[in-house]
Design brief:
This is Tetratricopeptide repeat protein. The protein is mostly helical. The protein has a domain at 229-281. The protein has 14 helices and no strands. It is elongated. The relative contact order is 0.04.
C-alpha cells in the first residue's frame, strides 16, 4: 500500500511537472509571437517609409498572399503602390478593402488620393464626400484643396490649403501647390508670396524656386530672387525667366538672359543654346 501511495505521489509530481512545462512552453510561444508582431510592425513601417518603392510593393504582396485577411497589410500594399507610381493598382486594393466592409475613413482618403493620381477626379470627390467631417487630417484637407482647385472654387481651395498647411510640420509641398493655384488664377503677387514661404520650409525645393521666378516674371520682375541656389539651378532659373520674358514680348531681355544662362551653366546647356539659336534666326 505504501508503495502504491509512493508511486501515485511520483506520478502526480511528474504530471505536475509536465503541466508546468506545457505552461512554460505556452508562455514562451506567446512571448515569441509578441516579439514577431513587434518585429513585423517595425518592418512594415520601414518598408512604407525607407525602402525602395518597388521592393516595398513586393514585400506587401508576399505578406498579403500569406495572410489575406490582414487589412493592415493590404493597406500597406496600397500605400506602397502609390509610392511606386502605380496608383491604378492601388485603387483596386483600396476598393477591395472598402467593399469588404473593413474600410475606414483613412482608407477612403487613401483611395481619393490614388484616384486623383489616376486622373479620376469625380470619383475622388465622391470618396471624400463619404468621409465624415469629423475626420480631420492633413491628407484629407490637402486633397479637398486640390479638388476645390480643380472645380475652380477658389475660396474653398484657399481655406483648405490654409488648414492643411497648419496641420503639418512640413508644409512646403502644400504651400507650393497653393502658390501654383494662385499662379494659374493670375494672382501673381499671391503666388510669389506662397512660393517664398514654401522655400523657408524647404530651401532645396527646386520646383518652388522655378515657380517663384515664373510668378515674378509674370510681373516683369526679371531679376533672380535672393534664394539659395546651386550654379546649375541658377542657370536653369535664368532660362525659365528668359522664356517668360520672350513670351511676354520682352525679346531683348530674354536674349540677354539666355546668354547669361549659357555662360552660368557649368556644362553645355543644350536647351538654352537651342532657344537662343531659334531666337537669332
Amino acid at each position: 500500500m505504501r508503495q502504491s501511495v509512493h508511486f501515485i505521489a511520483i506520478l502526480a509530481g511528474a504530471l505536475a511537472l509536465s503541466a508546468c512545462d506545457k505552461n512554460k512552453d505556452q508562455d514562451v510561444k506567446k512571448a515569441l509571437e509578441s516579439i514577431n508582431v513587434i518585429d513585423e510592425s517595425n518592418l512594415n513601417d520601414v518598408m512604407l517609409t525607407s525602402a525602395d518603392p518597388e521592393e516595398a510593393v513586393a514585400y506587401f504582396q508576399r505578406a498579403v498572399r500569406e495572410k489575406p485577411d490582414r487589412v493592415d497589410l493590404k493597406r500597406g500594399l496600397a500605400k506602397s503602390l502609390v509610392r511606386a507610381n502605380r496608383a491604378v493598382e492601388a485603387t483596386k486594393v483600396l476598393n477591395d478593402i472598402i467593399q469588404g466592409g473593413s474600410g475606414t475613413s483613412e482608407d477612403r482618403v487613401l483611395l481619393a488620393d490614388a484616384l486623383i493620381r489616376s486622373n479620376e477626379w469625380k470619383r475622388a470627390e465622391t470618396e471624400l464626400n463619404a468621409v465624415p467631417p469629423t475626420y480631420e487630417t492633413f491628407d484629407r484637407y490637402r486633397l479637398e484643396a486640390m479638388i476645390a482647385d480643380a472645380n475652380k472654387r477658389w475660396d474653398k481651395a484657399d481655406s483648405y490649403y490654409d488648414t492643411a498647411a497648419g496641420m503639418t510640420t512640413r508644409p512646403a509641398g502644400v504651400l507650393n501647390n497653393w502658390g501654383y493655384s494662385k499662379l494659374t488664377r493670375g494672382d501673381y503677387p499671391g503666388a510669389e508670396k506662397l512660393f517664398g514661404q514654401a522655400l523657408t520650409h524647404d530651401r532645396n525645393m527646386f520646383v518652388a524656386k522655378n515657380n517663384l521666378v515664373l510668378a515674378r516674371a509674370a510681373q516683369r520682375k526679371y531679376d533672380l530672387p535672393i534664394i539659395p541656389m546651386t550654379q546649375v539651378e541658377r542657370a536653369q532659373l535664368l532660362y525659365t525667366i528668359a522664356l517668360s520674358a520672350i513670351k511676354q514680348g520682352d525679346v531683348v531681355i530674354g536674349r540677354g538672359l539666355l546668354e547669361e544662362a549659357i555662360e552660368t551653366h557649368p556644362q553645355h546647356f543644350e536647351e538654352a543654346v537651342r532657344a537662343l539659336e531659334a531666337l537669332n534666326h
